[in-house]
Design goal:
Layout lengths: L4 E4 L14 H13 L3 E5 L4 H4 L5 H4 L2 E4 H4 L1 E4 L2 E5 L4 H10 L7 E5 L4 E3 L4 H8 L5 E3 L14 E5 L4 H14 L3 E5 L4 E6 L4 H12 L6 E5 L5 H4 L4 E4 L5 H4 L4 E2 L7 H11 L14
Parallel strand pairs: 1-2, 1-12, 2-3, 7-8, 12-13, 13-14
Antiparallel strand pairs: 3-4, 4-5, 6-7, 6-9, 9-11, 10-11
Helix pairs in contact: 1-11
C-alpha cells in the first residue's frame, strides 16, 4: 500500500535551528510527490501567517497547511477546519498566570495573534513566531467573534520544568490539551484539537488508512498525530518522550533527514525502505 499523505512539522523537523531548509530540494520533491498523488501537509504550532513565510507561492499551492498545532487548516487558500477554545476557558487560563513571573502569553486566532507585551524578551520571542499580531492591555479585549485556536506560553525554563507546568495546567483545565513545544514553550488548545485532529480530518476526507500516512516530528505537540499514522517518524534530535510514541527514527533536522526520506518515497512509494529506520530492531 502506497503513502498518500505526508505530514511534516516545521521547527526542529524540516527547519534547521537557524530556520532554513534546503528549499530547492524540498520544492522539487513536493512537485514530484504531488504529481504522484501524494498530499504534503505542514502540521505545525506556527500560525498560518508565519507558515507562509517559509514557502514560495508556487509551493504553497501544493501544500496543505495545519497551523496552530493542527487547529487551523487551510487548503487552496480556504479555511477548511477551525477547532477553537471557549472564550471563558482562555480568559480563565490567562487569569491563572496573572502575577506569575516570566510567563508570556500569545493567543492565536489562526490568522492573527494577540499578546499583552510590547517589549522585552517575551515580546521578542513571541515575535519570532508571529507576523500578524495585535497588542492588547488585557486578553478580554479580543473580539468575541474571534475564535482562539491556540494559546502559546513562552516559559524560559528547562524542558523538564515546562513538562511539569504542562501537567499542572492539564489538571487545572480539563477541556484543554496542554503540551510542550520545544524547550521554551507550552501550548494549550481544545482537547478535541491538536495535530492528530488534523490527520483525522484528512483521513476522513480522503478515506485514508493509517498505513497510507507518514508523519514527522520532534516535540510532544506532535504526539497526537503519531497516534493516527502507521509511519510515525521521530527526528534523531526529538524529545525522548515523543520518540516513545514513534515507530521510526531518522536523522536530524540539521541533516535535512526529512527531505532525504521524501526523496526515497518518490521512488519507493510503498515505504518498505522505512524498515531500516524502525526503532528497537
Amino acid at each position: 500500500m502506497s503513502i498518500k499523505l505526508v505530514a511534516i512539522d516545521l521547527d526542529q523537523t524540516l527547519l534547521r535551528a537557524d530556520k532554513t531548509y534546503d528549499v530547492e530540494r524540498f520544492e522539487a520533491v513536493v512537485e514530484q510527490l504531488t504529481q504522484q498523488g501524494v498530499m504534503v501537509c505542514i502540521a505545525t504550532g506556527n500560525s498560518y501567517h508565519k507558515i507562509v513565510e517559509f514557502f514560495s507561492a508556487s509551493v504553497l499551492e501544493k501544500l496543505h497547511l495545519a497551523g496552530d498545532n493542527g487547529n487551523f487548516i487551510m487548503c487552496d487558500h480556504e479555511v477548511e477546519q477551525v477547532i477553537g477554545i471557549e472564550r471563558q476557558t482562555f480568559l480563565k487560563l490567562c487569569d491563572y498566570f496573572e502575577g506569575k513571573e516570566n510567563f508570556f502569553i500569545c493567543i492565536s486566532t489562526g490568522e492573527v495573534s494577540y499578546m499583552n507585551v510590547s517589549e522585552g524578551i517575551g515580546f521578542e520571542k513571541i515575535l519570532k513566531y508571529n507576523n500578524e499580531y495585535k497588542i492588547v492591555q488585557d486578553f478580554s479585549e479580543i473580539p468575541e467573534e474571534q475564535v482562539a485556536t491556540k494559546i502559546a506560553i513562552f516559559s524560559p525554563r528547562s524542558l523538564a520544568r515546562n513538562k511539569v507546568i504542562a501537567k499542572e495546567l492539564s489538571d487545572q483545565f480539563a477541556d484543554l490539551s496542554v503540551v510542550t513545544s520545544g524547550d521554551d514553550w507550552v501550548d494549550a488548545y481544545h482537547y478535541e484539537g491538536g495535530k492528530g485532529s488534523a490527520i483525522q480530518f484528512f483521513k476522513e476526507r480522503y478515506q485514508l488508512k493509517p498505513e497510507e500516512v507518514m508523519a514527522f516530528g520532534d516535540s510532544l505537540n506532535d504526539e497526537s498525530m503519531m497516534k493516527e499514522v502507521k509511519y510515525s517518524v521521530a527526528m534523531s534530535n526529538a524529545d525522548t518522550d515523543l520518540a516513545l510514541h514513534c515507530q521510526y527514527k531518522i536523522g536530524s533536522n540539521e541533516e535535512q533527514a526529512v527531505i532525504d526520506i521524501l526523496e526515497r518515497l518518490v521512488n519507493e512509494p510503498d515505504a518498505q525502505f522505512m524498515d531500516q529506520y524502525e526503532m528497537n530492531r
